[in-house]
From TrEMBL:
<dbReference type="GO" id="GO:0000917">
    <property type="term" value="P:division septum assembly"/>
</dbReference>
<keyword id="KW-0963">Cytoplasm</keyword>
<keyword id="KW-0175">Coiled coil</keyword>
<dbReference type="GO" id="GO:0005886">
    <property type="term" value="C:plasma membrane"/>
</dbReference>
<dbReference type="Pfam" id="PF05164">
    <property type="entry name" value="ZapA"/>
</dbReference>
<keyword id="KW-0717">Septation</keyword>
<keyword id="KW-0131">Cell cycle</keyword>
<comment type="subunit">
    <text>Homodimer. Interacts with FtsZ.</text>
</comment>
<keyword id="KW-0132">Cell division</keyword>
<dbReference type="GO" id="GO:0030428">
    <property type="term" value="C:cell septum"/>
</dbReference>
<comment type="function">
    <text>Activator of cell division through the inhibition of FtsZ GTPase activity, therefore promoting FtsZ assembly into bundles of protofilaments necessary for the formation of the division Z ring. It is recruited early at mid-cell but it is not essential for cell division.</text>
</comment>
<dbReference type="InterPro" id="IPR023688">
    <property type="entry name" value="Cell_div_ZapA_firmicutes"/>
</dbReference>
<dbReference type="GO" id="GO:0000921">
    <property type="term" value="P:septin ring assembly"/>
</dbReference>
<protein>
    <recommendedName>
        <fullName>Cell division protein ZapA</fullName>
    </recommendedName>
</protein>
<comment type="similarity">
    <text>Belongs to the ZapA family. Type 2 subfamily.</text>
</comment>
<dbReference type="GO" id="GO:0043093">
    <property type="term" value="P:FtsZ-dependent cytokinesis"/>
</dbReference>
<dbReference type="GO" id="GO:0005829">
    <property type="term" value="C:cytosol"/>
</dbReference>
């Protein structure tokens, strides 16, 4: 199996530059970085005393929370769709 081609880009998140490598498009990776940056800035406004490490962890916790809620919604919709098909 051939290895998938990987894209490499530099992005800025909360004032720091990161190199991101992945099979997704550079546009997708920039969008992800932009969303993380926006979320960190949003949380920072409400918690200005957090250091960068704690801010990053709180951002991760909030993001995973949002992901799990969306996953639950998708599963509920899939169940509804299955019932409609039966």
């Amino acid at each position: 199996m051939a290895e998938q081609e990987k894209n490499r880009i530099s992005v800025e998140i909360y004032g720091q530059t990161y190199k991101i490598v992945g099979p997704e498009s550079t546009g997708h990776m920039r969008l992800v970085a932009s969303i993380v940056d926006d979320k960190m800035r949003e949380i920072s406004v409400h918690n200005p005393t957090l250091d960068n490490a704690k801010l990053a962890v709180l951002t991760a916790v909030n993001t995973v929370h949002e992901y799990l809620k969306l996953k639950e919604q998708v599963e509920a919709l899939e169940e509804q769709l299955k019932k409609l098909k039966d």
